[in-house]
Amino acid sequence: MSIRKRKLIATAAAVIAAASVLAACSPDPKGNAGNAGNAGNTGNAGGNNASSCTNKITKTNLPVVTLWGWYPNMQLVVDNFNKQNNEVQACWTNVGQGGDEYQKFQTAISAGTGAPDVIMVEMDRIPNFQIQKALVDIKKFGYDNVKANYSEGAWKDVSAGDAVYGVPIDGGPVAMIYRKDIFDKYKITPPKTWAEYEQAAQKVKDAGGPLFGDLGANVSALTMALQIQKGATPFTIDPAQPTSIGIKLNDQPSKDVLDFWGRLAKNGLVGKQDQFTPEYIAGVINGKYATYISAAWAPGYLTGAGVGKGKDTGKFAVAPLPQWDPANPVQVNWGGSAFSVTSQAKNPELAAKVAYGIYADNESLTDGWTNQIIFPLNVNALKSPEFVDLKVKFFDGQQANKDVYVPAANAYKGMTYSPFGQYYYDAMTKQISSLAEGSITGAQAADRLQEDVAAYAKEQGFTVQ
């Protein structure tokens, strides 16, 4: 899940008292540092001195690997790993959520010291750190033993060429959440294609109904995912040529998607409100939008923000993401995190054992998804009857995992992220804002984005292909 989205959520939460929303991306509420002095062997201390673990290590005769992470249930996850492991122990510290952790990690990278052995990172941040040689390729450290635990798409998201720079933990397969009451009132069935989506939106508008969706300028990662669904390949990277990058942000699929949403906004079929804001959430609660295109973590976020409660109870359902070509469906992802081994790890092989094994046991995975806190990528969870058959309260008992999210996760093929993702997302936000205002077309927005990001890449020393 992206940092920029977390910042937006934090801002909204401060206003609408939804601070505990998106628990998967929040600091651990149990993260008190009350177990100093219980770390045992400090030979692999990394950036955290292993004598100051948040967790208590009882197998003091084993080597220790230091770990940074901010999942809400990290205390349980680390304890589970340590109980079950007789080769290594994990010493966990929460140095901050997302951006705060990254800032500390970047400082450690620049200094050449101070990083942990293993670090939790969002998948779209891996290229940024990998290109600085701050992460280790862990493929030779047991990848074949765990390869089958995750899908092809999940592994691609944490890889560069044949190298693997993280172990995927959670993700965000994208789907279409919708208001059952609005669909029933206007006799709309969930659209299976984007053409049907536009037709349904027009039908609702013509009948005097609400907006059908929203073109939010501040959800660039989602916009990119929808462009990829159409066939776009925004970035191509060859690990053998680390200073060269392919940037294609104004190809026809990219322009088609932006033109589509620009047309819907221009015709008054969708809104133009930034998402994760109090205004947007108020609109969702009050039935201003018939649909909400978002990821599998959205139910947890919406519930925490006050959606689906009171008069909203039982009014939401979820359907697969509409397709451009139903004969060749493409599933996409928004968000997700992994555990990576840093180049400052004293023993990369031992650190890899922690990265591969942490958050991989059934108890930790079950605790993670029970309240729709995270969407697990481990196939042991994705295949478990408890997860697949779960009747999701937010969706009025619908088996959303079985109906929508698990098939989407299994079909996802992965993508290539940019090593300067934050700049790209910010640049896209600027263009989507102009598109929503109607001052430019989708094609123009794509051309401007291409020019902007390509120029930035060259300034950073890249050769743009």
TrEMBL record:
Name the domain of life.
Bacteria
- Keyword Magnesium among UniProt keywords: no
Q: Which Pfam families match?
A: SBP_bac_1
Write out the entry's keywords from A to Z. Answer: Signal
Q: Where are the transmembrane segments?
A: none
Cleavable signal peptide: 1-23
| Protein name per the record | ABC transporter substrate-binding protein
